[in-house]
């Protein structure tokens, strides 16, 4: 109701101020329906949605894939530099975290449970 009143007031004011015929203002969604998330997204959200369309995960938003952690198929750890600090919860209900460094160029073994980890290079998207 208030929107219609405002539109009517605007068009009346425009007609009175100029001799030209003023077109009535229209709402953006009146004819085309509700815009999708992709149409409304801007900035970082838009970049992430476009990357998801291409099948990429630029900011590691999705849950990482699970690997068994053996020497042949180690857990992959993305790292920007040459090394990364890794915390391993060796047992499901364990409260103590075992911390150790993983360096690029080979797999490293957790000193407590024996799970293997491998550092892989990761590029920052921005």
UniProtKB/TrEMBL annotation:
Q: Which gene encodes it?
A: LOC108889816
Q: Which organism is it from?
A: Lates calcarifer (Barramundi)
Q: Name a GO CC annotation attached to this entry.
A: mitochondrial inner membrane
Q: Which UniProt keywords apply?
A: Acetylation, Membrane, Metal-binding, Mitochondrion, Mitochondrion inner membrane, Transit peptide, Zinc
Higher taxonomy: Eukaryota, Metazoa, Chordata, Craniata, Vertebrata
Q: Name one GO molecular function term.
A: metal ion binding
- PROSITE patterns membership: COX5B_2
Compartments where located: Mitochondrion inner membrane
UniProt xrefs under InterPro entries: Cyt_c_oxidase_su5b, Cyt_c_oxidase_su5b_sf
Q: Which residues bind Zn(2+)?
A: 88, 90, 110, 113
Q: What is this protein called?
A: Cytochrome c oxidase subunit 5B, mitochondrial
Positions carrying N6-acetyllysine are 65, 83, 118
**GO terms for biological process?**
mitochondrial electron transport, cytochrome c to oxygen
Q: Source organism's superkingdom?
A: Eukaryota
Pfam families per UniProt:
COX5B (PF01215)
